[in-house]
Amino acid sequence: MGQIPIIHQQWLKAIKERNDTTAYAELYQYCWKDLYQHAIRRIFDPQDVEDILQELFVQFWEKRHTIDIQMNLPAYLKGMLKYKIIDFFNSNKAKDQLLDYWSKHVFDYVQQHPEELETYLNLEKMLEEELEVMPHNMRQVLLLKWEYLSIREIALRMGLSEQTVKNNLSEASKRLKKAIIGYQNVQNSSFSILLIFILEELSK
User: Fold this and answer.
1) What pLDDT shows up at residue 146?
2) Which residues of 168-187 are buried (b: 16+ CB within 10 A; e: fewer)?
3) Where do the domains of the chain lie?
């Protein structure tokens, strides 16, 4: 284990024992960029990331009297961030973000084929309904995979085996494909083929 930087210990000691806001500001400035870059790779909306980090540092300050000044500061903050990201994906905001992402993929197609607009809106509603009725773990596996996390990362984050993650992902994809194909207005259409292709790409 590497030696803990003295400056980290000085910041933590000052914050814990003296409520030193200057030390807190220096710690914030030092750690914020790395945490932001870590979060933005998983949550693509900068405003969402900034909100999460603001909440994280507020909680850090509120718990300042219980912190261990000998701890690995970057690792501790990334641990906090990990659970913040999990909470984000457990929220409706993540589902809304996913639907926005889906929308962007087919926006060009709908622009070129305005007659498909009503069909697209109905399919978007259907996707939201399918996500709502999925078992919790299945829905979370799908949401995390569509945020470009690997099978291993999802397994570690959710406390599941990699095979369980794969099984949930496979079943979720089958459900969505079946719903798309079963929708009468897109059967055998180029639009349905496009949507299934997007789904397959996002679920790889």
Assistant:
1) 73
2) bbeebbebbbeebeebeebe
3) 6-89, 92-203
Contact 59, 77 (CB under 8 A): no
Whole-number pLDDT of residue 1: 38
**Site of tokens 């790779």:** 41
Give yes or no for a contact between 93 and 36, defined as CB atoms under 8 angstroms apart: no
Residue 64's pLDDT is 94
Considering only the top CATH level, what class is 6-89? mainly alpha
- 3-state SS, one letter per residue, for the chain: CCCCCHHHHHHHHHHHHHCCHHHHHHHHHHHHHHHHHHHHCCCCCHHHHHHHHHHHHHHHHHCHHHCCCCCCHHHHHHHHHHHHHHHHHCCHHHHHHHHHHHHHHHHHHHHHCHHHHHHHHHHHHHHHHHHHHCCHHHHHHHHHHCCCCCHHHHHHHHCCCHHHHHHHHHHHHHHHHHHHHHCHHHCCCHHHHHHHHHHHHHHC
pTM greater than 0.85 (yes/no): no
CB of 102 closer than 8 Å to CB of 127: yes
pLDDT of residue 145: 81
- The mean pLDDT values, 10 residues at a time, for the chain of 204 residues are 78 95 94 91 80 93 93 92 76 57 58 66 75 87 79 88 91 81 55 58 54
